[in-house]
Amino acid sequence: MDVTAEAAVAQRRLPQADPPVLSAKRLFGLDLVRAAAIAGVLVAHGAGASARLFGFEPTVWLYMGGHGVELFFALSGFLIGGLLIDIVEDTPGAQAWRVFMIRRWMRTVPLYVVCVLALLVIRPPADPGSTLISYLTFTQNLAWPMPPWFDVSWSLPVEEWFYLSFSAFAVALSLLVGRCAIPIVCLAFIVAPIALRLAIAPPDGNLDLLVRKITIFRLDSMAYGVLVVWWCRAWPAQCHRLRWPALALGAATTLGAVYAYPGETDPWRFSVLLALIPSGFALMLPAAAAWREARGSMSTAIRWLSERSYCIYLIHLTLLGAALREAESGSIPRWLAIEVGLLATFVLADLSYRFFEMPILKRRPTLRTSVVATS
After folding, report:
1. Residue-level pLDDT at 25
2. Helix 267-283 / helix 220-234 crossing angle, nearest 10 deg
3. Which pLDDT belongs to residue 2?
4. By three-state DSSP, how is residue 124 classified?
């Protein structure tokens, strides 16, 4: 879940102002999308923390910021899809796929493993051995509800299994059908999870836990972003011309689905909403990608938040929880707890990005395509 230098390769053929200009630079609009996604998650969890501290229930719309995770999914698919299109068009085969996966794992796995190991020490689960195995293999919620430990990690298996399975199928099929492999695999990854949700989703119970956060039910969530970037690459002039109508349609779709989401108990309607939210977000991305640059202190803050969003996502709930416990014990004022938790999150995320994540990113192998990668 990152807009790093790797994204530059995926971004270079995105629709730009007429005439088209290829760019290997970061696109501010996509940084803004990622910053908005993590901000939504922080607002949702901050609302929950406020309810716990002060005994009042915030408006349900604050909790809807949790759908920032769905925006992360759509954006990841959009960026990763661009990279996979490059591979399929330029260098399909096992070697390119291997480098692609190594690069993804070097971005996502090291920090995740550090967080898992740290939590094993700080908040050990009831069964540390089996917990460690399931979390390190990204199977904690593969086809079953995940345990109540490291809750925010539910989205990581969705992404990791998508990266692995989608890319493998796409590259393998491209050896037979060429660039048509991308839309074919996209459709398969959209239809199959929706069919699974409709066929075997539980008729009642906590649908958020039993459906939304189960990996095999959510592999479509990133495919929408891949399909949209494939559209951008296959018909760039059309995509550029229709980016604002697509933005309006995507916003209307997402807002309508989010409005209908709270309290939905029908598994069929719930399954449809789970498709509409990320697909609506995906339709908004071509317009965001067209916003290439921005200046000023606000744009600097947005880029800062975007670059550190992965670590913020992984650690914020743990640190907020620790701050709440300190407030409830009287160690710090209740009104200060959320600020302390968020400040600790931002400081640690900045240190992680500078001294842990970036040194690893600089050591990743180069993904060789027809245009030299800048990542």
Report:
1. 66
2. 30
3. 52
4. coil
| The predicted structure's pLDDT at residue 204 | 76
- Predicted confidence at residue 372, as pLDDT, reads 32
List the structure tokens of 86. 């490059």
Burial code of 212-236, b = ≥16 C-beta within 10 A, e = fewer?
Answer: bbbbbbbbbbbbbbbbbbbbbbeeb
Q: Which two tokens stand for residue 25?
A: 């630079």
Separation of alpha carbons 275 and 330, rounded Å: 44
Angle 68-90/28-54 helices, nearest 10 degrees?
A: 150
The contacts found for 240-243 with CB under 8 angstroms, 24 or more apart, are 240/15, 240/16, 240/18, 240/20, 240/286, 240/290, 242/286, 243/15, 243/286, 243/287, 243/290
Number of Cβ within a 10 Å radius of residue 294: 14
- Please report, for the chain, the start and end positions of each structural domain, with discontinuous segments joined by +: 6-361
Taking 50 as the pLDDT cut, the residues of the chain under it are 3-23, 370-375
Is the CB of residue 171 less than 8 Å from the CB of residue 97?
yes
pLDDT of residue 1: 54
